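Recap slide: CHASE2 domain-containing protein, sequence and predicted structure.
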Amino acid sequence: MTFSNAQRTWIVGCTLVIILVVIGLGLSHYKTLQRFDLLIYDLILPLHSPGMSDQVVIIAIDDASIHELGRWPWSRQRHAELLNKISSLSPKAVAIDLIFSESENSLTADQSLAEAIDKNARTVLVVAPVKETPNSLISERLPIPILATAAAALGHVDVELDIDGLNRHFYLHAGIADPHWPS
């Protein structure tokens, strides 16, 4: 059977399309295309990003902090002392990215932290999504009432990680059934 040039071109074209579709499906199955897309995104984003503001200061709990202030977890009294030191510098806002969802053994420590939060008047505490068991529904974990009442606001810390374990986006608002917690 002989084919005309037009038929050969059509057969070669269809064969190439089929090969490319099979390769594309194979790559997407292994998340290769998605990883490549994320790599391109990571390379392009710094070119268009304004960068981090010098008005934002992150105070992290690191190994040096633990070495100097003692083993983790710290008491609410320690957090109150640290918040009072930060407040003495008159920050425009303080966000504490720790979940204070259970009372401490010492009621005075909880009270001290609540007073420091209230005194600062610009402290935001976190609300976190939790799933108690693999079969349970997601619920919201809020700070204990004495701290939630003292806080200027509550905000969510719900982040979705990409397939490579990095966070590249976040929700401006989140919540169960209704996205009412700001980020």
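DSSP finds six helices and six strands in the chain.
The longest strand covers residues 123-130.
(End of recap.)
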